[in-house]
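Predict the assembly for these two chains.
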Amino acid sequence: MNGYRRMFSREHPGCVVFLVEQSLSMADGISGTQRSKADAVSTAVNKLIASLIAMCDKGEDRPRHWFDVAIVGYTTDANGEPVVGSAFGGALAGRDFVAIPDLAEHPLDIEIRTKAEPRNDGSVIQVRVEFPVWYRMPPEDKRFGTPTSRAYEHARAILQPWVKEHPESFPPMVIQMADGLSIDDRVEEPAVALKSIATADGHTLLCICDVASERGGEPDLFPVSEEQLPGDGHRWFALSSAMPTTVREAIEARTALPVAPGSRWMVNDADTVAILKFLSVFELMGLPWPLPRLPAHLR
Amino acid sequence: MTESEPPPPACLLALVSLAEPMSADVGTPLGDVPALHAARYVLDFVLDALASVGEATAGLEIGVYGYRGTPDGLAFEWLLPAPEPEGALAAFSTLSQAELPQRADGQPRKWLRGTEAEGQAEPAAALARAHRVLAWWSSTHPLGRPPVLVHCATADGAGEQSATVVRSIRALSVPAGPAQVFEWTFVPGAYAGFPSDDIWEMVFNPSDPRPALTAPAAPAFTVERIFWSQKRGNDPGMWEDAYAVGVCGSVAAVCDGASDGIFCRDWSARLANRFVQDRPVLTARPEVAAWVAAARKDWQAAIDYPKLRWSQQNKVNDTGASATLAGVEFGAPGADGERPWRATAVGDACLIHSSGNNWVSFPIAAADQLNSAPSLLRTKIGVAAPAAVFATGTCRPGDLFLLATDAVAGKLLADAADGNADWESYAALAPESWLAEFDELRDTGKMVNDDCTLLVLRVAPGVPDDRPSTTENDSTQDGAILTPLGERSNVDPA
């Protein structure tokens, strides 16, 4: 797979589209725990947006405009009608894409959360940290079904003008956070259409994070084959993009995450830790492409 | 050294050409044998001898590589028993435990794996690999003996390029002295000798210690050119490289702020400026850590952390600023006008010293070595300090020194590899021409779109200096500095 080498810059900004499932099943515990999938996903999305902003912050007046970010929520209403659209709120409500400097300026809220921090003596203390929030799950009475194909169509519709405006950029990265697919939803065709949107640097990447409901299953991060994947795994495998070589090399060079030639950009049955691992790849994006590998004797 | 002290770390790296010309017979005390056999036999002999001296080899690390050119590029093969070590060098104490095939009685055991002589001779590429290994070893063993390279090859494929790499290896230095290279060059049909004693001497009786630099009374150089240019598409204020030149003309430095950091411009400028002010001797990691800690304190005060917005505080905590550094310092000239120089580098900012038709580069010997993640001086607390690497040498009036950040260094070294090493042209180049050339390279993708910085210094005529010598770390000589900070055009004619 050629391409996927363009560095993110103000001249050639990148594009991240979060596609977040908002169905009722997201209220269930993640991986058999008490914590809801909705909460785990919201936290992960907000954390990644904060990381993207920090990546673009060079210590100048405003962070640099290296990315446009969209958050698309998808569910149905009580009658089964798809509800798909921008999930931004507050000053950003209704906008499809928000540039990094505007995101930095307009979080929905800055929550105070606690974070465990190890100390030199081995103990762990809880420290209070500011946690900016851009995305919140809608209330449970607004969340019903899983119209995935409509979500793909919506993403395609907002990406078409974006690539026209940024024909030389690194292609859009669509990050889907979901816990399943409807059996009767014909998702394949809209997914292919979504992935056909391209810039000169490559086709749109559909990166899928399937959140686990059950306890005990091992998350499959960046699988190379659909054979062993339980549940909807084989369908996710078919929908997700193959990981570009440049991205795989970056992961190999800078992380211990399991990737191999042929890896799909997806995780199946992700628990909280696997979600963070999956999303941490996007935090490598601010480094120069392609990320060189450290020679063995310098690692 | 008292008897109870362990011997200092030492390093012996041998390169053996496996190319076809090594099958030609050469004369040895044991009769006429193919050059490859002669090389193997002598290295086996040296290794056997080392194995017999016990404690004296306690800190010795060894690597023996064979190389040949193939259609797929350079083949670089580990020739010793046991798997190839990650760092390209194995502790001799573990290596000497290996079961080895025997030769006849009284002859050395077979340490080196036998292999056919075939393929092309590509000494320059192989020597550049050796340069990288030795640079790394010398930076991580500041208390070690000067590292030793033995190169066994015919003259095939040798030329300007391989000679330059050998000179660059000889410039690498630890406090105990510069690296040593023994070139055993075979001539088919001619007597090749049996240089085991020469190799032994180099390992155990190394070169002279690195001399302390005596600050010169008059400027050691003039600044011929200072070129700098920010990434294409950025404003000049976003240039994150930096340079500094001591006003007394005996020290200069360039730094390259890493593009994934925050407040990197301030950090790289601070490091370059401090380098020419402090003249730090960054012998080992603790010295680097202490120097970085002092610079970090200034940086933290300058960025006013408590007043930063949340995204900046997060990034300062998680990533911070980082930069590479290459600095050069000059000593007072001797009676013959020659003066010593010492270069310090962390990461891949580069120095080129050109003298007549000869030149050396430091700490990188070939453009393809720039394609890796460099060591960095970082503001982040809790990250281990990198080790600096050093080069030393002497220079004559009129010599040129070029200090370049990585993108420019890559272009300079690639030009040199193509036979176009015209360093003198940079001393004469008009700033507009330089900018036009580098803009075009970056716009056409022939060069990474990166910040670019190049300092061109010319060594001044030497007036021998009768002053009493001062300490190596004399910080008063270069108190004032030129700094790139502030409003100015993005090209400075010097």
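The helical segments of chain A are 37-56, 100-105, 148-165, 188-196, 233-239, 245-254, 272-280. The first strand of chain A starts at residue 14 and ends at 21.
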